[in-house]
Amino acid sequence: MELNYLKLYFSLTLTGLTIWGADESLDIYRAHVVQQKAEAFAKKLELEAKSLAIRAQTDALRLKNEMAENSRKQRELNAARKNNNEICRFWTKEYKEVKSERNKLMMDGACERARKD
């Protein structure tokens, strides 16, 4: 039996190229799958980042509104205290000028409200 080395060479070369091509195709497929997973993960992270940013903005806005509301309430309380103190001083002055029962009652009521604040 005589070996034809040229046919053997081409057969082995073709076999090697076929195996190499299949291996490269498998590597390309694996790289494609990894790329798809990475893109999906990146999109998920992007959505989570946007969600966190929106949540942070919402929390900041809520906090700002709460602070504005607290500030408004504090201003109202301060205005009421100031008003009560002015009324107390007024009726104290009136009572010192005219020592009447009405002025005494009004002074006591106004100063009691001012002390409660």
Indicate the topology.
Layout lengths: L4 H93 L3 H16 L1
Helix pairs in contact: 1-2
Describe the structure.
The chain is mainly alpha-helical. It has one domain. Helices cover 93% and strands 0% of the residues. The protein has two helices and no strands. It has helices at 5-97, 101-116. It is rod-shaped and about 145 Å long. The model has no long low-confidence stretch (mean pLDDT 94).
Q: Supply the number of structural domains.
A: 1
Low-confidence stretches: none
The residue-averaged pLDDT reads 94
Beta fraction = under 5%
Biggest sheet, open or closed, and with what strands and sense?
Answer: none
**Large-scale geometry:** rod-shaped
Structural class: mainly alpha
Question: Which H/E pattern describes the elements?
Answer: HH
| Estimated radius of gyration | 44 Å
How would you sum up this structure in a few lines?
The protein has 117 residues and is mainly α.
List keywords for this structure.
about 120 residues; mainly alpha; about 0% strand; rod-shaped
